[in-house]
Amino acid sequence: MDCGICQSLMFRFRAVERQTCLAGGCRVLRFAQSHVHTAATRARRAACPVAHPATPRRGPRPCSRRRGRSMVGTPAMSAFRSVPGETLLPHDTARRRFFGDLSFVPRLVALALPIAGQHLLMTTLNLTDTLMVGQLGEVQIGAIALGNQVFFLLMLFLFGVGSGGAVFSSQYWGRRDVAGVRRSMGLSLALGSGGALVFTVGGVFFPGLILSVFTRDPAVIAEGIGYLRIVALSYVFTSISMGYAHALRSVGDTRLPLYATAVSITLNIAGNYVLIFGALGFPALGVRGAAIATALARLVELIVILSVVYHRKGPVAASLRELVRFDRAFAARYFHRALPVIFNEVFWSVGYTMYTVVFGRMGTSYLAAYTISDTVGRLALVFFIGTANASAILIGNRIGEDAGIEAESLRAPRDETPAVPPGIARDPRDSIAQGIALSLLKILPLIALVLGAIIFFPVASWVPYLFAVSDDVRWMVTLLMRAFAFVMIFKIFNMHIIVGILRGGGDTHYSLAIDVSFLWLVGVPMAFLTGLVLGLPVHLVYLCIGVEELGKMVLGANRIVSGRWINDLTEPVEALHDPVPDASDATGFPL
Questions:
Q1: 267-301 b/e with 16+ CB inside 10 Å = b?
Q2: Which residues pair with residue 30 across a beta bridge?
Q3: What pLDDT digit, counting tens, does each position of 50-107 carry?
Q4: Rg of the chain's alpha carbons, rounded to an integer?
Q5: What is the rounded CA–CA span in Å between residue 112 and residue 395?
């Protein structure tokens, strides 16, 4: 006879040890990871009509599939290892009790490094383009800057679309549902390409109208028209590349997008040198040469990604028929979760631009100091951008994998099963994804504190000397960077909460609410008040703006601890939040 409560426990967690229930003879699969014996789990076991044995401090050898892997348990199993008789040292036990199971960290770093490298390459490309075009004159710099501003708006849209699709793709890949991955990727590609086509039409047929929104200088507009008409032809290429890149990351392949970006950037720099200045016998095309080099580089990036993907025939190597295999119900679920991500990126970027407006109105020297410190700060956060995106992938995969285990348990034949006591349902606080999220909340502030206090704060005094600015600006840069060293602790924390954990769990509405509301209701008003009304020093203005990060941190951490952020997006929306299982479901899971 199988106990219904034990069935709900065994399929909710990864099974690593088998024992026999002393009274009823049911199979009990004990979970040897952290965060299992919570109050909710103990309550379920107390409600079980079958008497269960106490969890041993050292148990039998687990199944061979898990042999040799460290199994970290609850306080009662904190010394439990996969090899009998092997115990943990006291300090190791205390570390595991506080931080939980950190076995996911190597996988997190392996996913994060290529993503961080790709962001670093993109930052380097923008700097290189500015330096090379800067040899032509101020008008040419302004023309390319305005053209890149249009591309920046497109990238915000594409990043939101890709991130929204990755929420679904990562969970589908967790349960190894390749059809679901391809269906999500197809809808993401359709939405992204449609938006890119709108930008292309505007850039090709109405470039002057678009550029006139940003400037009234006729010389800059004239140069920018030629640049925008050419580079706009590559927008659709970029949308397809980003769609495949986000899908590849969702299934754990973060290297191919990095390699494709490296090839594209190398070709772009070489093309700029040849076509802008007329090297190797080519004519000197100036701004138009930069546009041609950029368009060709983006086309080559797309060719590299598609060639490798379809040569490997991996999970994202979808046919056209598989990409369009989505119905109205799936599209509704997709937009329900993806649109908040798009709105989040757009509203956050516009709000962040308001800070530049404030410092610009404070004075040219204030704007220069803020620009320098913000650029250096972005470089310091590149690695954490990678870990935040990797956290979303890792958590999404885990949620999808757990959902697949539960689905198999529901399809598995069972003998007589007693009725489940009322009120027994799945508790997301007992999931492995919850354990990973709680471990991240504990280790990230310590890493940020070390980076800010030991590395970033001491170098703040000599970084300004890398720039040809006045002594007053250098002093303001030093103060701003020291203020940033303090605020970055909360920035890194919130980055992983919003971009990583909440999005990975499909809680995109809540992440939109806390990110945008604190930015526009606290950060932006505080910037205008302290910078333009009170006239505080520049570093104090920045610290006052950082108050928004405190609010995000408190509400975001509370959301994660509650467990309400975990959403199984591989199931119909109406089945995700049913607190009471159906009477015919003997496992205790909502169908």
A1: bbbebbbbbbbeeeeeeebbbbbbbbbbbbbbbbb
A2: 17
A3: 444 444 444 444 443 333 333 333 333 333 233 333 444 455 566 666 666 677 888 8
A4: 27
A5: 13
